[in-house]
Design a protein that fits this description.
The complex is a heterodimer of chains A (376) and B (297).
Chain A: H1 3-21, E1 29-36, H2 43-59, E2 62-63, E3 66-74, H3 79-92, E4 97-100, H4 104-116, E5 120-123, E6 138-140, H5 145-158, E7 164-170, H6 174-189, E8 193-200, H7 208-217, E9 221-223, H8 228-240, E10 247-249, H9 256-262, E11 270-273, H10 283-296, H11 302-321, H12 326-334, E12 339-341, E13 344-348, E14 354-355, E15 358-364, E16 367-374
Parallel strand pairs in A: 1-3, 1-4, 4-5, 5-6, 7-8, 7-9, 9-10, 10-11
Antiparallel strand pairs in A: 2-3, 11-15, 12-13, 13-14, 15-16
Helix pairs in contact in A: 2-10, 2-11, 3-4, 5-6, 8-9, 11-12
Chain B: H1 3-34, H2 41-57, H3 63-86, H4 94-116, H5 127-130, E1 132-135, E2 138-141, H6 142-164, H7 166-176, H8 178-183, H9 188-213, H10 223-236, H11 241-261, H12 269-283
Helix pairs in contact in B: 1-6, 1-9, 1-10, 1-11, 2-3, 2-4, 2-9, 2-10, 3-9, 6-7, 6-9, 7-9, 10-11, 10-12, 11-12
The chains are: A alpha/beta (376), B mainly alpha (297).
Membrane topology (chain B): Multi-pass membrane protein
Pfam family, one (chain B): BPD_transp_2
GO molecular function, one term (chain B): L-valine transmembrane transporter activity
Amino acid sequence: MGRKRWLSFVAGLCGVAFALAAPALAKDTIKIGVYLPMTGAVAAYGQMEWDGIQIANEIKPTVLGKKIELVLVDTKSDKIEAANAVSRLVEKEKVVGILGEAISGNTMAGNPISEAAKIVSVSPTATNPLVTQGKRYAFRACFIDPFQGEVAARFAVNELKAKTAAVIIDIAQDYCVGLANFFVKEFVKLGGKVVSTTYIQTGDQDFSAQLSSVQATNPDIIYAPNYYTEDALMAKQARDLGINVPILTGDGAQADELIKIGGEAVEEMYFTAHFNKEAASTELAKEYIKRFEAKKGKEADAFGALGADAYFLLVEAIEKAGSTDGDKIREAMVAIKNFPAVSGLISMQEDGNPIKSMVINKVKDGKFVYVTTVNP
Amino acid sequence: MTINIFLQQVINGISLGSLYALVAIGYTMVYGILRLINFAHGDLLMVAAYTAIYAVTLFSLPWQVSFPLVMVLTGLFGILLDRVAYKPLREAPRISLLISAIGASFLLENLAIVLIGGVPKSFPRPDVFAKVIDLWGLRVQVLTVYMPLLTMALLLGLLYIVHRTKVGKAMRAASKDFETTRLMGINLDRIIAVTFFLGSSLAAAGGMMWAMKYPQVNPFMGVIPGLKAFIAAVLGGIGNIVGAVVGGFILGLGEILIVALFPQMAQYRDAFAFTVLILVLLFRPTGIMGEPITDKT
């Protein structure tokens, strides 16, 4: 290809990109921004949540008599991109509310920007306590890590009869570090002993060194509250090394990719989670699951359900506020009590965190199955 | 640490090291001939892994057929890469080539995202390799046994080509002096194509091994192996094929042992690799087995 043709090719590409990015000019719409990891290390979360948000938008497409327009920006699973995405949604797209991000670290990068602009944001699944701490306009649709870590520790002691635990922490993720801390605190309080603490990093693929040293300490369980890719690779390498103790992890495990990548190695992996189809009870949940499965041709998952809940909570707050003013939406949000959402009853607290129940799931025969529900 | 655990860690290290070595050979080879650091080399790993997935799942070829096939296809892809990204710049300053290489790397990664999507895919690992054998209490994956053997076999094959064949002779000549080699009537483009073919098929072997060991394939899977292989190549003496293998093993073992001996430092394993790079560049820029710097640029 000659240089000229190359140039025109590149110019053509840019043209297409601009055409795609051109804002819709309709005036009778209310814009809700969505920033999620559609590519990168945690892309599976973003894509599941986006699926859920789209279904929720189908169920409730209007608010205040206007059509809701969703504006999606990809964060590429990256903190800096997440912050840029929020800036863009606030400044260029002029959204009235924001949904996202999927993981804690990225949400904490995005929240200060929406906070400064006094725009309400609802993260579907950022569970680290710091996400909403000291913030006025930041909310979430999921429970927070202290609860998750505690429940995991109680489950390990009471149900799995564990006396010793090895903890493997993804040091690069606020979520993983937080969860591990809360688990260790509760586990020790209940008389357990942590015999080994080792670290990994998001994107690492080789955990054999950490696992070999874990093996030397012979723990009753491994608590590895990391994300699905690391969970799957780690389980695989653990089983290959002959480590057969139960592995317990957090809600970050619940992506189909865990099973696709982990295969047999993730069988009997336990995790604390936000949602299981079998435990769903509200009318909204039934409607959502029906539509989701008809439209997407797969089982309704937790991340999709929470994406939908974040949407429903935000729309409910806008409706109740009767306005698109950030402060009014915020006041309406904290007033939400016993809202029958997809993942169960949600009551929003003043601090931006909801009160809701948790389920424990495990992997069995290549599926996520429901074990039990824990109430707050 | 008991002796058993230590041995287990050494095995872990050798297995990781042989992967680095495999990728580093191709890296160093292209550098040796063209004086080009092919930053897109790591992304060829990714291209190969995806090609293998499609060969095995979509066209349901048995892995015995598809793996060599993927090596050939990736080799041809390497030639294409050279034609598009590097050949037009043969006469340009080295820095343009380097920039073009970085561009090619980003292009491949983003193309993969657009075409395939960002969600990781699982790699169809043949059962033969997935088996785990118990050697006096040490748990060794069959793949771990094959990997160093394969690395050695490919290394010997490559050494044979470079030192015993006509093409190899031409490659060595080109690496010494481009212009004079051309004046001697050697078709340089052909020699460069062969170099890219060999280098890329080695990347393919590395990519498939990598994907079998860590069965999670995504558009960015080549970035870290590419960087580590680059460091291994520099450590061994960039341009030196045996050096690349030595560098790969040192890096792999070093990384594993740092985690094994200082578990609290596990998050610094990448930092370890980069520290090695800095130290080598500071104190022995030509690496362990590199030739002394001459006035050739």
